[in-house]
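Lab channel / #folding
Pinned by the channel admin:
"Please post every new chain as: sequence first, then the structure tokens as a reply. Keep commentary short and put observations after the output so the thread stays searchable."

First post following the new format, from NK:
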Amino acid sequence: MASSTSAQSNAFRWTDFDAYLFDIDGTLLVTRDLVHYNALNLAMREVYGVDTTIDGITYHGKTDLGILRASLERAGIVGSTFEMKLPAALQIIRREVNANASAINPAVCCGIREILASLKSAGKLLGIASGNLESVGWHKIEAAGLRHFFSFGCFSDDHEMRVEIFCNAVAEVRRRLGERSEICFIGDTPSDIQAARQVDAQVVAVCTGTYTIEELTSHQPDLCISSCAELLE
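Reply from TO:
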């Protein structure tokens, strides 16, 4: 499967679901600022006392907790030292992003506004399933002018693994719509595809982040598209 056309020929109909759960970074929007980046780096300096950054970490698809762990492991901070100080580090990230929220400058990905409006008008339940901390994710979405589309969100505050976030999102959809509700995730990384598969959900992969269509299709999403604008065709 190399494109949306081949997926559609296999009878995947992206409009047939009851709920749609979106990743944020690289899927809904791309930030043009350093607010989140600076907050992560400051948390590591203030709480763990190491002068390091997240540079060089493959963080696309990782949760905020996972990004911190990978960055600090590289600096020799592991195990109980990492775990004990993690709550304080997360609080600094929330504090810094909240204090600098006015500087968040997101570019909404191609086709997103139109797709969200179309799904909302069709009565679909829209939610967020993101590796961001909750307050960080909502600040980005609000800065992009997309908050009114979403009924709920599941984030990484208590979950390092993306599959745990996806499990929570599925449970929330079932609570709202019933056990038989059909769910589709939309994300831009192999981690999104893998997590969706682990919760037995369908997944649309979109190449508006850092991964190419070849990289994403190798993980066999139900549909792979260059941008959400293709869904409008």
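NK: The chain has two domains: 4-32+106-232, 35-103.
TO: also worth noting, The domain at 4-32+106-232 is CATH 3.40.50.1000 (Rossmann fold).
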